[in-house]
Known about the structure:
This protein is α/β, with parallel strands linked by helices and 397 residues long. It folds into 2 domains: 3-149 and 295-347, 3-Layer(aba) Sandwich (Rossmann fold), CATH 3.40.50.2300; 152-280 and 378-389, Rossmann fold. The protein has 13 helices and 12 strands. The relative contact order is 0.13. Residues 8-22 have low confidence and may be disordered.
Amino acid sequence: xxxxxxxxxxxxxxxxxxxxxxxxxxxxxxxxxxxxxxxxxxxxxxxxxxxxxxxxxxxxxxxxxxxxxxxxxxxxxxxxxxxxxxxxxxxxxxxxxxxxxxxxxxxxxxxxxxxxxxxxxxxxxxxxxxxxxxxxxxxxxxxxxxxxxxxxxxxxxxxxxxxxxxxxxxxxxxxxxxxxxxxxxxxxxxxxxxxxxxxxxxxxxxxxxxxxxxxxxxxxxxxxxxxxxxxxxxxxxxxxxxxxxxxxxxxxxxxxxxxxxxxxxxxxxxxxxxxxxxxxxxxxxxxxxxxxxxxxxxxxxxxxxxxxxxxxxxxxxxxxxxxxxxxxxxxxxxxxxxxxxxxxxxxxxxxxxxxxxxxxxxxxxxxxxxxxxxxxxxxxxxxxxxxxxxxxxxxxx
Length: 397
C-alpha cells in the first residue's frame, strides 16, 4: 500500500469515526454531555453530596485529559427531592441541554417521576441512584440500570438476620412512605410470611413531616425487640435521637442509604448509636483497618484536593466517588461509539469490575437480564467508633 493511499485511508477512517461521534446527541469531537438531578436542597439534601462528589471526580477525569480525547460535561440540577422539579429539570437536560444520556440521577421519587419520559425518548438512564425494586425489572425498564443494591435484596438480608438473632421477637419498621420504604416492608413480608401480621408493626412517615418522633413513640408502645429504620438520613437521625432520649435500645437496623457516620450518626452522637447494624458495599475511609489501603488513600487524597473541608465520614461522598469511577468505566468501554444505543449496551456489559473502595468480594456484573451494579452486601455493626464487618458477603438468596 502506497503512503498516499494509506494516508487517505487513515483520513477517511478518522472522518468516519468523527462523524459517528458527531451524529450522536450530546457528543462532539471534544466533549460528551451527560445529565443528572440531585437533591442538593430539601428533606434529603444530605444525599446531594453524592452529586457533589461524582461531579468532583468527573472534574478530575477532565483534568487528566478526559476519555478518548473528550471532556465530560456533567450537567446537574437541584430537584430538592421533589418529583415535579425532577421532571422539569430532566426535560431541560434532554430538550435544552441536549445531553447524550442520564447518569446517576438520585432518588426513588425523582426516578419514578421521570422514567416514563426517558423510556419514551429512548434515553439511557444509567446507574440511577435508587434501590427501588421495580427498577430491577429489565423488561419493564429496558433503558435503566441501577447503582444501589435493590431494597428487596437489602430488606431480605435484614429480615433473615433479625429472624436468626431473635427468632420469636416482635419487630418494628419505621419506613418512608414511598417505594423506598415500602420495598423494605415487602421484603420482610416475604421472609416472615404468615407471621408478619402478628410479629411486625410497620409505621410510615412522609418526607414532608417535620419529625418522626410520634412514629418512634408509637412503635415503642408495640414493644418490638428489633427495629428497622428504612428511609433517608435526616429521618434516620431523628429516630435514633428520639430512641436515645427514651432509653429504648432494641436491636436496631438502619438501611444502607441512611447508615452514614457523618450524615446520620454524628448528629446523634457516635457513642449513642453503638450497636446499630446495617449492610454495606463500601469501605469506611476513617476506619483504621483501611489505613494502608490504596483505594482509601486515593479517595482521601481526592477529597483533600477536590472537596477540601468536606466531611469524609459522610459515606455519600465515597458513594459519589464510586459513581464517578463507574461513569468513567462506562464511557471508556463505549470507545468512540457514544451513541445512546451503545451506551445502553455497555451499561449492561460491565464484567467483573472491582472498584478500589468497595468491600472485598463485591464485584459489578451487569447483563441484559441483570441491570443492577450491586447485588452483594456485607453486614456490619457500629461499635461507637468504627464499623465492624461480620459474616460473608451476601445476596438476597
